[in-house]
Amino acid sequence: MIDDAKEIFDEMYHKGLVPDAVTYHTLIKGMFQAGRPQNAKELFKDMCSHGQQPNIVTFSIMIDGLCSQGNLDEALTLLKKIEESQLKPDLVTYCILINGMCKAGKINDAKELFSSLFENGLRPNVYVYSAIMKGLCREGLIDEAYKVFRDMEKGGCLPNNCCYNIIIQGFLKHEDLPKAAELINEMVDKGFSADATTIELVVRLLCNDDLILRLLKVLVRI
């Protein structure tokens, strides 16, 4: 499919048609998804050389693709290019980078980037909060994740279903059932529900609880 798209793209040039930014974006994204980052980078260079100035969407697609391929250093290089240009990174760009840093195990860099948003006058949205909380939970920093969770509402960003499930799963993985139960009740009261992963963790913990196992053995005999 991606080769067919590239063939049509090349035909446009042969016919004297200049692809617009949307066309480049679609093809660059497709190359990354097909596991062909080198082709994506070549298209990005081609876009610049043919007078199509990359915008913040272009850079975000490139950064997302590079992060997904584990090329965090190249992604950060692009961030510097954005900052040196007249463009300004938006929350989508920052969210992608925070996700990439967390997945690469660079939680301190992610925390620093997250803090810089406030310093630059930006208000993180629910997606940015979810990204940093997920990263903190992955690294076992559940107390920090919980603080971020509570701070987001104070900052005017209401947690959604995803945020609740992330923090609840963090406490469940640390076998803190009382705190997880408290948050589950809070989540339900706000009209949200547990996702499949949260339910699986609850069941797994209950099944590993000696008291529950003893009760089940008694019930089997009845």
TrEMBL record:
Keywords: Repeat
Identification of the protein by name: Pentacotripeptide-repeat region of PRORP domain-containing protein
Name of a matching Pfam family: PPR_2
Annotated organism of origin: Manihot esculenta (Cassava)
Family per similarity comment: Belongs to the PPR family. P subfamily.
InterPro entries given in the database record: PPR_rpt, TPR-like_helical_dom_sf
Extent of the PPR repeats: 20-54, 55-89, 90-124, 125-159, 160-194
